[in-house]
């Protein structure tokens, strides 16, 4: 299971890197069912001028309509915000694997309280991509907009 | 204020009717700032094959990137699901006006606990559009898919 988690997180991280290369926020996500990728996505807020296009949301949008999510796992490079946490609960995704919660804490206890199995990898590469992004001029402001911090 | 609420809810309801006319779920939303419409939208799950395109999400997407939502009000014909509730919290929308919570309860206490001012209009026209939709063959299944009920 650990190897699989690292493999899928590497895909989510590649999505994050792609997002940064395109001038966006470096946060990626992958939806997996039975060890197979259903969809991968990344934050497209800047690229599409779309405030709801967080990495997890872009991934779920790309997955299209699914009859059920009860047998899926969502991988995300960064701890989910309340929009994405609410979506995980609404869709009934039973397990979420999070790359890191240092650059953004999210609300992991809330997810766990509501019955989601959360694995926090505390992955150095996931932290590093956000750090590199935030170190560039102007990006801290973009990040605060992304998480709706005044 | 009550007149304004009814006026904006009528716009949200018109969005819901448009959604049903297009073969989709009849749920509409309007984002308002200082008495002016920022954006209006409706559920596009069926039309775009997009599981995250609930009415509120479509409206917020159409509003585009906003510096802040602290001075906005979100109108929605139907009580928000957890995805949309999480989004309301994440974006810091301080007030939500809900047409009805009979066809879908949502979690209004959760929104209130987290500091959102919620007005429930218990509007007969909002109830009616959902009732008409659900009465059509096959639509109950579509609705269960929309709210991710197995």
Automatic annotation (TrEMBL), chains A, B:
Its cofactor is Zn(2+). The keyword Metal-binding applies. CDD domains: nucleoside_deaminase (cd01285). Its main location: cytoplasm. InterPro entries: CMP_dCMP_dom, Cytidine_deaminase-like. GO terms for biological process: nucleobase-containing small molecule metabolic process; pyrimidine-containing compound metabolic process. One of its GO terms (cellular component) is cytoplasm. It is found in: Cytoplasm. GO terms for molecular function: diaminohydroxyphosphoribosylaminopyrimidine deaminase activity; metal ion binding. Gene3D superfamilies: Cytidine Deaminase, domain 2 (3.40.140.10). Homodimer. Keywords: Cytoplasm, Hydrolase, Metal-binding, Zinc. This is Nucleoside deaminase. Pathway: Pyrimidine metabolism. Residues 3-118 form the CMP/dCMP-type deaminase domain.
């Amino acid at each position: 299971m650990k190897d699989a988690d690292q493999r899928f997180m590497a895909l989510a991280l590649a999505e994050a890197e792609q997002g940064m290369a395109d001038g966006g926020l470096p946060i990626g996500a992958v939806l997996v069912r039975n060890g197979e990728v259903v969809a991968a996505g990344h934050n497209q807020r800047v690229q599409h001028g779309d405030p709801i296009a967080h990495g997890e949301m872009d991934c779920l949008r790309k997955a299209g309509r699914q009859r059920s999510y009860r047998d899926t796992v969502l991988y995300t490079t960064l701890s989910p915000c309340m929009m994405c946490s609410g979506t995980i609960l609404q869709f009934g995704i039973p397990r979420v694997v999070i790359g890191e919660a240092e650059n953004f804490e999210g609300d992991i206890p809330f997810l766990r309280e509501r019955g989601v199995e959360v694995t926090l990898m505390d992955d150095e590469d996931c932290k590093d991509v956000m750090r590199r992004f935030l170190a560039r001029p102007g990006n801290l402001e973009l990040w605060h907009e992304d998480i709706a911090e005044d």
